[in-house]
UniProtKB/TrEMBL annotation:
Protein name: Transcriptional regulator, AraC family
All copies of domain HTH araC/xylS-type, residue ranges: 198-296
InterPro entries in the record: AraC-bd, Homeodomain-like_sf, HTH-like, HTH_AraC, RmlC-like_jellyroll, Tscrpt_reg_AraC-type_HTH
One MF annotation (Gene Ontology) recorded for this entry: sequence-specific DNA binding
Keyword Transcription regulation: yes
PROSITE patterns: HTH_ARAC_FAMILY_2 (PS01124)
Keywords: DNA-binding, Transcription, Transcription regulation
Organism: Siphonobacter aquaeclarae
Pfam families: AraC_binding, HTH_18
Amino acid sequence: MAAKQYNLFRYFISRRMKNNAIPMVDICSVTGLGSSEIMVRRFSEYLGEHTNLCHLHRHTFYHLLFFTRGAGTHTIDFEHFPVHRNQIYFMVPGQVHVWQFDDAPEGFIVNFSPSFFESFLLRPDYLETFPFFDGVARIIDLPPSAGVEGQLEELLNHSPGRPDVLRVLLLRLFQTVETYVKPVPRLPVGHYNYLILKNLRKLIDQHFLTLHRPSEYARMLYITPNHLNALCKEHLGLQAGELIRSRIALEAKRLLINFGMSISEIAYALHFNDNSYFTKFFKKQTGLTPEEFRKQHQ
């Protein structure tokens, strides 16, 4: 295919991706109070007003939900979790999720924008130091003695006209929940290797469509590919190439549930020039062919 024709084809594929994209929910559309930075609600009321959010969607904001009652399934980035009392989960902007409840759920929901803490904290990456804001699907089961329900009740009843108090209460909640997260070895924040791995994840998110080799990311990070792989293996338990392939597979899943795009169009959108190679790649990553994955989510 000539370069001009190929680029034109890519353009139309990108348009199809946008037209069939998973709905992106902005915080202004769910606060209902004119606020563009934070919303704290009882979950039953929120769900009653936003029934469309029972369908697959993603957010431009941070999101947490604590269940005081409920049963069913919650799916985050295509990982399924059973819903039950005293369970809390956190999501970062861009993650895809959907609920399927077996009975009427209750609890507390908090949505806040990425800018909510910007003027309050000296370190803009402070939220990333909490293990549940790393972009990995994670559900945390809490004992009643944790006191999280009481803290959320206090957040709910506090005046939205005093946002700094809301920020303090929310940070206290994060610190409480963190004590119940199973500790894992982590690099000190600000450590040189911590910054490398943090920047690697950001670069992969930005370039995974076009850059597939660890050496390309190592070059942007000004280190050798061997050094990059050693860091990933030591601190993440994965090779750098596995991180890249995992991100491509996640995007493939997100596109496959957009039924307006064919498998071939999705393969080209992800820069696989050979449809059979895309199928082979996807099955190796997920254990399913693209067609089988799509049928599961029909």
